[in-house]
Amino acid sequence: MIEASLQLPATVESRGYARDITGRVMRRWGARIGAAWIVCLVLLAVFAPFLATSHPLLMKSAGKWSSPVLQSLGPSDVILQAAFWMALILWPMRLSVKTKVIAWLAVLIVTAIPSINSLHPPQLFVYQHYRDAVRSGKIEQVVFAPVPFSPQDHLRDQEDMRLQPPEHVHWMGTTDNSADLLSNMIHATRIAISIGFISTGIAAVIGVVLGGLMGYYGGWIDLLGMRVAEIFDSIPTLLLLLCFVAIYPPNLYIMMAIIGATSWVGYAYFVRGEFLSLRDRDFVHAARAAGIPLPSIIFRHMLLNGLTPVIVTASFGVASAILMESTISFLGIGLTDESSWGALLEEALGGGGTFYWWIALYPGLAIFLTVFAYNLIGESLRDALDPKLGRMM
Amino acid sequence: MNKPLLEIRGLTVAFDTERGSAPIRPVQDVSLSIFPGQTVALVGESGSGKSVTALSVLRLVPSPPGRTLSGEIMLEGTDICRMSEKQLQHMRGKDIAMIFQEPMTSLNPVYTVGDQILEAITLHQKVSFREARKIAAEAMAAVGIADPEERLKTYPHQLSGGMRQRVMIAMALSCKPKLLIADEPTTALDVTIQAQILELLRRLQRETGMAILLITHDLGVVAENADVVAVMYAGRIVEFAGVEELFDHPLHPYTRGLFAAVPRLGQASARLEAIPGTVPNPANFPAGCRFHPRCALTQQIAAESADAVQVNTDHILAMVARPCVQQEPQLRQVSPGHWVSCHFADHYAAAAASPPSLEHRREVVVESLAAREVDA
To answer: Whole-angstrom Cα distance, residue A278 to residue A291?
Structure first.
């Protein structure tokens, strides 16, 4: 009799916290636009070798069809493709998040090993070779990419193409060494995306672990951790990066590591504060009373409850990491062999005080829009996660 | 069968305070034993040390500042106070489980109910995921939750308070603990749900034969559920007896005060009876008997003596209450199965001081235990 009255209405929708928050964030136009922009960038980054390349996508030569673009792919391109398609396949599947991540990583490793071992695309392409062949009729039929220029294609076969303003062939004009600006911009999204995510990821992991331990244990661990955090807080990231590139050759991964290692302090402060209040909550006591081991209590039960400020900080952190990389590249000490928005921006100023507006406008706009998009998402997240604003939106 | 499941002997818990001042002792020299299948109630006002006692049993008193100064807590022959962190983890949840006062906040809001029960099960029992799911669903069904498989997928915020407390109980019982510590399990629930939860605990106890340490300040709950009652005041047990004995002959003036404070049906009174004063701060407990500043008994005796000899009441009070002020009373067995610590309890002087132990339990429980033994 009692049991019967306990039946809940069948319509109660089992909706997770994460999905609830995502829904609330995406109700805002700012966040939608920001997310759309980021999705565009991700798509551009993944498909850059097919969107902007001098290699024909398909061509018919001596009666045989072939795809030169596929032969030009390097290991990183193949791994990126595998990662993207696997994520797309796994996303709608009814599996737990853990299984999905494991499956995804497994596929990544499986594709990474053979592609790194066997794929060795030539270091130097002679891009005009294709155009010459088309002109001379050696290639009978051909399908070029939407932007038929590779970022390193200096258009040696054509008369002076240096620093052309935008026109119908080169939609965004050309750079100092005749390369197509749009093609460079598309390929540069990879650096913009990866430096943001990876350096923020490094910072968040360090910050969460240290902040969590500080907040949970308190006492002298807290004291020591806070002093270490203050020391790191006082290191200027830009100067450290400058020192580094002055001594060693520029390296993207080291740059990510440096940005990550100096910007974790904010995360640590936030997580520490959250944990200080979480550790006295009833469900933490209940978890301890149930004999759940300490690492599981800290990183499973408490962390997920204290993660909200981390997510918000991270979305702003991604933006600032992108800015940081652009700054370094703009100063001319960034990566030399790969295009990045900051490095392109630097070329806008020619010798003798000349200014090429298109080289300043487009990369500058890209940086601005990306940072703006992350900030829009971050702001929307902050509002959605703020219990005081709660359901008002 | 005659061995206690849990035996607390002379437990004193201290909390370190600011540097310079002496540590406070919210629990002082508490002895208690719990037999299998028995329900022992710890009764007392807020701040009397009942929750700290319960937390000490699980070694969950936050440390620092808390520490066990002296005493031992024997769980089937092993001292919990000497267990390593690993042994403790193994013991918590498996041998002794605990349910808390606030079902609204005792479940982790970001995991489904099923995730949380399954975590506890897979932690303490070597079972496959599928079996664990089955155990979880059975536990949910045992606490009277309809459609348990579906309910495992819900989040805590989708459940009412009573349902959440049922889930907490299901989680605690999924590993078949020998002792369940229930820290005011019904305080936060409304009265009809309280009755359901208490009934549920009784039924589960009959079925599994576990012991329950019930912490409460509700004498109605005590009367209905407990076999044995320990009344705590200011960190000490002041009276310990079987439930009928205690309700028929409360001896300690504090216990009597508690009973007097219960409002009665059919008796209209302008004011509720109350024990004057408040529970003393553990930082400065009164010397001697900790209850003496609030004790009605000493004042009453003093008043009676004063009537007889016609002298200053205050002077008589000082004389009468001298042992109360100077000497801390010991728990003494004044009648079979009834311990009390009060200088003025009947037969108190003649009784021998001893830690309380009482094998008083309800007939039903004894029967179910006997049946289990036959099975074994």
So the answer is: 18
Nearest CA of chain B to the CA of A34: how many Å?
A: 27
Residues in contact with B94: Cβ distance below 8 Å, sequence separation at least 6, in sequence order: A291, B124, B175, B177
DSSP letter at B210?
Answer: -
Q: Which of B69, B155, B75 is nearest to B116 (CA)?
A: B155
Quickly list DSSP for B321-374.
THHHHH-PPPPEEEETTEEE--TTSTTTTTSPB---------HHHHHHHHHHHH
Separation of alpha carbons A245 and A222, rounded Å: 34
Distance, CA of A165 to CA of B333 (rounded, Å):
103
Query: Which residues of A fall within a CB distance of 8 Å from B148?
Result: none
Does residue A334 register a pLDDT over 60? yes
List Cα–Cα distances, B362 to A355, B194, B199, B359, in angstroms.
95, 21, 15, 10
What is the DSSP secondary-structure string of B178-194?
A: SEEEEESTTTTS-HHHH
Secondary structure of residue A66 in the 3-state scheme: strand
Q: Is A117 helix (H, G, I), strand (E, B) or coil?
A: helix
With a pLDDT cut of 70, the percent of chain B lying above it is: 87
**C-alpha to C-alpha distance for A192 and A180, rounded to whole angstroms:** 19
- In the prediction, which pLDDT does A336 show? 66
Name the packing angle between helices A252-262 and A237-247 (round to 10°): 150
Residue A370: closest CA among A309, A312, A314, A321: A321
Q: Give Cα separations from A333 to A228, A256, A339, A342, B102 (angstroms).
A: 29, 15, 13, 10, 59
Say if CB A44 and CB A97 are below 8 A apart. Answer: no
A291 DSSP assignment:
T
Sequence-separated (6 or more) residues with CB below 8 Å from residue B264: none
Task: Give the minimum alpha-carbon distance from A280 to chain B in angstroms, rounded to a whole number.
Answer: 10
Measured between CA atoms, how close is A125 to chain B, in angstroms?
Answer: 53
Cβ burial B291-329 (10 Å sphere, 16+ → b, else e)? bbbbbebbbebbeeebeeeeeeeeebbeebbeebeeebb
Task: Work out the average pLDDT over B181-201.
Answer: 84
Mutate to test the interface with B, among A2, A3, A6, A19 (most CBs of B within 10 A): A6
B173 contact residues in A (CB cutoff 8 A): none
Characterise A332 by phi-psi region: left (phi > 0), alpha (psi -120 to 50), beta (else).
left
Nearest CB among A7, A15, A283 relative to B146 is that of A7
pLDDT tens for A154-205 read: 777 677 777 777 887 787 888 777 788 888 889 889 888 888 889 999 999 9
Q: Would the pLDDT of B46 be above 60? A: yes
In A, what residues contact B, Cβ < 8 A? 2-4, 6-8, 12, 14-17, 219, 281-283, 285-293, 296, 301, 304-305
Which region holds residue B286: left if phi is over 0, alpha if psi is between -120 and 50, else beta? beta
B48 residue type, one letter:
S
Q: Quick one: pLDDT at residue B75?
A: 87
pTM above the 0.90 mark? Answer: no
Please report where in the chains the tokens 């100067």 appear, as a residue.
A239
- Residue B374 has a pLDDT of 58
For residue A94, give the 3-state DSSP assignment.
coil
pLDDT for B180 equals: 92
Residue A391 has pLDDT above 60, yes or no: no
Q: Which residue has the higher pLDDT, A251 or B108?
A: B108
Confidence of residue A27 (pLDDT cuts 50, 70, 90): confident
User: For A48-106, how does the pLDDT look when each residue is reduced to its tens digit (9 = 90+)?
Assistant: 888 888 888 888 877 788 888 888 888 888 888 888 999 888 888 887 778 888 999 99
Average pLDDT over residues B308-315: 62
AA letter at B108: N
ipTM of the complex: 0.79
pLDDT bin (cut points 50, 70, 90) of residue A6 is very low
